[in-house]
Design goal:
The protein is an alpha/beta fold and about 270 residues long. It has one domain: Metal-dependent hydrolases (TIM Barrel). Helices cover about 40% and strands about 15% of the residues. The chain has nine helices and eight strands. The protein has an eight-stranded parallel beta sheet. Helix 4 links the parallel strand 4 and strand 5.
Length: about 270
């Protein structure tokens, strides 16, 4: 899986290529990504039912497709009704087997955006997230974390558990102070299509001024379309447009962005 030459390459650190949106053209999408100089893609799981197929699919796609595929196994807070604490035991057993292309735990996290969320659902989210952070500590793996209206709660768990391999805060849109707290814990911040919207002034400012060694790129395909592509399926090849946008915001070259953010991912995931 190592990138053994000096060829310019991009790493999409968060792409749900396993979703049914890509069932009809997954390999052509990967071919387009390769043309856009994407060398690696990380596919994070959202439900326990995806784990076995993702392990197999990441291996298969890397063999038959032109892009290196790695994956993460986790329980996304959006699907809280489908998760239970027994799934943490299943995840633990899977991670003990050390599947070759499983490089992180995720997509996990907390999502408190729904104001009508019950206290039971919030407690369940916290229990499942904490359990996954504890597994990251146990298995010495990085995390891929989703957070909405919950960064302070996420930080409390991370400070308590202290995962040494840290990870990525996916689609970061928190405050500058929260960004600084994540960086103190060793986390990288993921930026995607959101920074291509001029109205996203706070996130664009953060992307422009945070240390480049703290940033990774992502698409969240098929979701989070870029500016100018609203209403269309997002694709991993468009991570190149995210990189170009970040280069403009920072006033540096596209090559500098590509090399730094890809290096950040490969180092984090030990590829």
């Amino acid at each position: 899986m190592a990138q053994g030459n000096d060829q310019l390459s991009l790493f999409d650190s968060h792409c749900h290529l396993n979703f049914s949106d890509f069932d009809n053209d997954r390999i052509p999408v990967l071919n387009q990504a390769k043309k856009a100089e994407v060398s690696h893609i990380c596919i994070p799981a959202t439900k326990h039912a995806e784990w076995p197929s993702l392990i197999n699919e990441s291996e298969l796609l890397s063999k038959v497709g032109p892009v290196n595929i790695v994956t993460a196994l986790g329980l996304h807070p959006w699907f809280i009704a489908e998760h239970n604490l027994e799934h943490l035991k299943v995840l633990d057993r899977l991670l003990q087997q050390r599947p070759a292309r499983v490089v992180a735990i995720g997509e996990t996290g907390l999502d408190f955006f729904d104001r009508n969320m019950t206290s039971h659902a919030k407690v369940k989210q916290l229990a499942l997230f904490t359990g996954q952070v504890e597994l990251a500590c146990l298995h010495q793996m990085p995390l891929i974390i989703h957070g909405r209206k919950s960064h302070d709660d996420i930080l409390k768990v991370l400070r308590r558990c202290k995962p040494k391999r840290a990870g990525i805060i996916h689609a970061f849109s928190g405050s500058e102070q929260q960004a600084g707290e994540y960086l103190k814990l060793g986390f990288k911040l993921g930026f995607g299509g959101g920074i291509t919207y001029p109205r996203a002034s706070k996130t664009r400012h953060l992307a422009s001024m945070l240390p480049i060694n703290s940033i990774v790129l992502e698409t969240d395909a098929p979701d989070m379309p870029l500016n100018g592509y609203q209403g269309q399926r997002n694709e991993p090849g468009r991570v190149k447009l995210v990189a170009e946008c970040l280069a403009r915001l920072r006033g540096i070259s596209f090559r500098e962005v590509a090399e730094a953010t890809s290096h950040n991912c490969r180092t984090l995931f030990r590829i």
